[in-house]
Structures
1.
Amino acid sequence: MPWPPKACWPNFRSRTFHAKARDVRKARDWALLATKADMPKCPLLTGRIPLLLTYHPRAQHPDKDNCLSAAKAYLDGIAEAWAVNDRCFDPRVVFGARVKGGRVVVTIG
């Protein structure tokens, strides 16, 4: 997935609620469509679902707790695609190599 937009990060302050909501909705929809495209490869999920979020930052490593908060829209989109509650997710954040533009790789298990 692409690097989360600025509006998804917890320290972002927007002048208007609508601008932030629009960007968060785009991120959620992106995750929903990406998950649905990969749906045949996903097993039937029950119980706790371990997710590994590998952040490949643009420049410096952000805080892990901020990364988890920024991925909330992505996790909501994934949960909507699988028709599960996002409370079942057991996410873990790790950092990978730096890449141009940054990205987030979500792995099940």
Note: Residues 79 and 85 are 6 Å apart (CA to CA).
2.
Amino acid sequence: MKAWVRASFLPILVALFAGSAALSGEGSPPPPQPGSDLSQTQPAEPEGELVFEPAPEPAIPNEYVMGIGYLGGFRDAWGTEKLFDPINARLFLALQDGADRKDLARVGVPDLDLALQDLIAGRMVRESSSGLRPAFPLIREAARETFGAAVQSAAKGAYVSLRPSLKKIRKAAEKEKVVPWLYTLLWSEMLESRAAEASLAETGALKAQRLRDEGYLWILIPGDPYSTGVDRYSSGSETLHYLWTATSYLNPVVEEFSTRREILDRALSQRPWEKEGTAEALTELGVLDAQKRVRVPVLRKDSKLLAELRQASRRYAKKVLDLLDPDAAARLLGASRDEAIAAEFSAVGFRFMEKAVQDGFLKRPAYLFQADSSEEGLVEALVITENEQNDPLERAYYLYDREDFEGAIGQADQALKLRPGDPETLFRKGISYMKLRKYAEALRNFEQAASRPARTEDVWRGWTLVRIGNVLDMMGRREEALKRYEEALKYADVGGSRDAARAWLENTYHD
């Protein structure tokens, strides 16, 4: 996230799993609205000269990393960075096709149980009565051709069915003068849209709670050149979409969520950019014009194009599901039915986009890192759309990022009326109280969030327990805090939650 030059395998990893503020920061996790404040994640680093080291070489084949795909809202639930550890990588490769502990003992790692615990906590491996397997589908070797044929067939059928809608969409884009951004809009508002994901959950194809908390991850081998993802930053009423593919080098300036918030705000208000530290870089990237105004287009709810995209999105999701055979895919990939659907669904989108580009319906965008991109291409990966309806939880994240902590609490209260006892909302409310140094109120909200039963895989429980420990430390209740940090180690490692718990077991938390 901090380097301009990355090895070819890093961009998609950064985008999927480190591109948004992890639960480890006060800004905590991406869904639905990230905020970045890492000041209290770990004990302070010692002062001294910074040493920049090259990115580590992957301990697994590059195709695994370049082939990562994702559907859902919470990328940090998946600890793919654990595969960069040579010991973890050896184990992962040894259990690709399934293995038991006796088999893995032959791999010869120093502490098998510890390594497996690390992989399981990061959702890279799952254990069942039948043994240990990857926690997501691997599309490789013999399965690749069969999987690809099924995806290609579904994409063809969906493309033919949606052609009339595509013609209307293209016409509306021309009328609204946003054709250069149509690739981004088609993916973010139709193919990998919130509406499409909601349709998959409503039909029972994907588990709604898992989609919301973790999302679905799979690995395609080799990496698909059309693999595409979108990161979203929302104010609760408008959303900035940041489109990327495995071939793009995500730009660290745009990856900063404070910068994305400014891009969203300035595009809506048309006020010139005032932060000199980023103005020059964003101007060079084409995000700002010569007058330092944001050049990202904004589509309001009355946009005919936006209406056409959103209407087509649910039709697209239904059509693709009708054309897929998820039971066959599940058998082929050795995965659960919902995981197979997630892999097939987004892979169909890749082929759909490829077909649209080949037919001249879309122009594949140039990306921000390319200095020789045409001027109009420089902002094709960024677009803003008005939400169909306001979301108070997203608004709470946004206000938190603006350091309006009282406002964030108020919006969290509104969200709790819609989803009483929601752990994510209670966590957001508790973090806001921490910022206001109202520790009793923060503790009450964190404890309420932790009072519900939770699986060890729960994405909120580990960090909730860590924050309870932090508050107890601030209240001078160290022995109670230590118990909470120990308890946090029993839950999934999300965004470095276990590292934070271990750090504060050794060091008392201070605000």
Note: DSSP finds 22 helices and nine strands in the chain.
